[in-house]
Design a protein that fits this description.
4 helices; 194 residues; 30% helix; outer membrane lipoprotein receptor (LolB), chain A; eleven-stranded antiparallel beta sheet; globular; alpha+beta
Amino acid sequence: MMMRFLLLLTSCLLALPAWAGDDLLAALGERSRQIQSLHGQFEQQKTIAVLPTPLDSNGRFTVEQGQFVVWELLQPVQQTIRLSPAGITLETDGKAEQIGASMPKNGAETVTRIFMAVISGQWQTLRDHFAIEATGDTGKWQLTLTPRSPALASYIRQITIRGGEFTEYLAIAETNGDNTSIRLVTDKVVRSPQ
């Protein structure tokens, strides 16, 4: 009888981190639903496995919850990427082009949905595509995302997202050895009316 009790207690304690992670994701999801838009700045560093030095860039971002993400690159070149449910648009020198047009429609939509979800904190959307390990609390948290599908896993090894009130850091480890790290500083927040 005592042995069964100890086994039950041990299994409950081992399951506790998963419950805590689910609670954290639920709390972060609720907080992100209260945000209508975010505006801020980013610094990005791309390490390409075959290059000796990383590529640095910076710019501004705008997130309109559920509508679009604008990623405005200011240095070293000026370029604007707009992600929306309609797709990805790249604007350079006043000329706009649809990205992913050569991709199957559902592939471009998946990439757009995932990137919008990562930037805007749509955790349930991310759960559809990744196993998520959540640690910390709502004041200081980290999410580690591992792709569920073999197709996604053939490109992305892991995504790490850290933050406090908002997402502050994002790291993407690709299967080819390339890595991208992005620091986000949120300047302006518009909260949804209660």
